TrEMBL record:
This is Fructose-bisphosphate aldolase. The keyword Lyase applies. Gene3D superfamilies: Aldolase class I. It comes from the Bacteria. Belongs to the class I fructose-bisphosphate aldolase family. Pathway: Carbohydrate degradation; glycolysis; D-glyceraldehyde 3-phosphate and glycerone phosphate from D-glucose: step 4/4.
Length: 349
């Protein structure tokens, strides 16, 4: 890689984790956004999807102050607002960076019941070239790692971890070749009944393999962003960990596995509640800022949008209320990114 390309990628990555800022994951696939709209009793039409994304991207305070970048779905990066302005232009006008989800989803891993491997490498170079022309400066690829139920230690298998991390590395190298910063997302799911220590073990092993694969693929870490799960107990575990334990174990795990050259780590929310996701991020930044070589921020989907979606309910007259809800969550997470959030702030309108 030339020094110029490395600088270009590093500048983008550093902007993605600027102080007080993080990423809005608005890249729900057609199937996932349908599920979200079902929850408010709204039909998932192209216009409804456009209206919803438009209301988010037109929330000026959030987009200018707290959202450094937005991950889009293929449909959205090509869509125009009601008045004809490309949605991408709304994002860049606010000083935020457009990004794009490029994986084609997690598919069953042959002969490994219960495990998945993410696909989408075929034709990826050409797709990235087009996405760059459409304005994307970063991309996302999500690998999904499940943890076996009832103490079943055969899931995840070494083979499944290796296959997913290898695909992530091939994706990341192609992104960098096309002047796009790869967000590498190895998500260890919080479904299941495992405790926090099992999540630690699987997360650490996944990250060790990921950085080995990225090294072999000649990916420049200064031009990447990591999007991981927090180290946290499964939703069905009877031993739920406190925010202090989550923060301590997450930071310890990453210090052991994520090289210092990585500019930023942005968490997914993965099913945590909005306030939980904010509180956990805040605790890490408050207690451990001095010992972390990377910026720690957010790339939340549900934890930035849940209240906004509910307030909107698919009705035009609710747009201001939905925008206020989104702005509030963006501000709370912006504060958590700096370890400056307190629970009392949740009551500020
Ligand atoms: P959640 O924050 O809702 O987990 O979504 C983030 C994301 O982009 C998952 O790939």
């Amino acid at each position: 890689m030339t020094p110029e390309l490395l600088n270009e990628l590093n500048d983008i990555a550093v902007r993605m984790v600027a102080p007080g800022k993080g990423i809005l994951a608005a890249d729900e696939s057609t199937g996932t956004i349908k599920k979200r709209f079902d929850s408010i009793g709204l039909e998932s039409t192209e216009d409804n999807r456009r209206d919803y994304r438009e209301l988010l991207f037109r929330t000026e305070s959030a987009m200018k102050e707290n959202i450094s970048g937005v991950i889009l779905f293929d449909e959205t990066i090509r869509q125009k607002a009601e008045d004809g302005t490309p949605l991408v232009d709304l994002i860049t006008a606010a000083g935020s960076i457009p990004g794009i989800k490029v994986d084609m989803g997690a598919k069953d891993y042959a002969f490994h019941p219960g495990e998945k491997v993410t696909e989408g490498l075929t034709g990826l170079r050409e797709r990235l070239e087009e996405y760059h022309q459409l304005g994307a400066r970063f991309a996302k690829w999500r690998a999904v790692i499940d943890i076996g139920r009832g103490g079943d230690r055969s899931i995840p298998s070494y083979s499944c971890l290796r296959a997913n991390m290898h695909a992530l590395a091939r994706y990341a190298a192609l992104c960098q070749e096309q002047r796009i910063v790869p967000i590498v997302e190895p998500e260890v799911l919080m479904d299941g009944d495992h405790d926090i220590d099992r999540c630690y073990e699987v997360t650490e092993m996944g990250l060790k393999l990921l950085y080995e694969e990225l090294y072999d693929a000649k990916v420049a870490l200064e031009g990447t962003i990591l999007k991981p799960n927090m180290v946290i107990a499964g939703k069905k575990s009877d031993r739920q960990a406190s925010t202090d334990e989550i923060a301590e174990k997450t930071v310890r795990c990453f210090r052991n596995a994520v090289p210092a050259a990585v500019p930023g780590i942005v968490f997914l929310s993965g099913g945590q509640s909005e306030v939980q996701a904010t509180e956990n991020l805040n605790t890490m930044n408050k207690a451990y800022a001095d010992i972390m070589p990377w910026k720690l921020s957010f790339s939340y989907g549900r934890a930035l949008q849940a209240s906004a979606l509910e307030s909107w309910g698919g009705k035009k007259e609710n747009v201001p209320a939905a925008q206020a809800a989104f702005a509030h969550r963006a501000r709370m997470n912006g504060l958590a990114q700096q370890g400056a959030w307190t629970p009392e702030m949740e009551n500020d309108a």
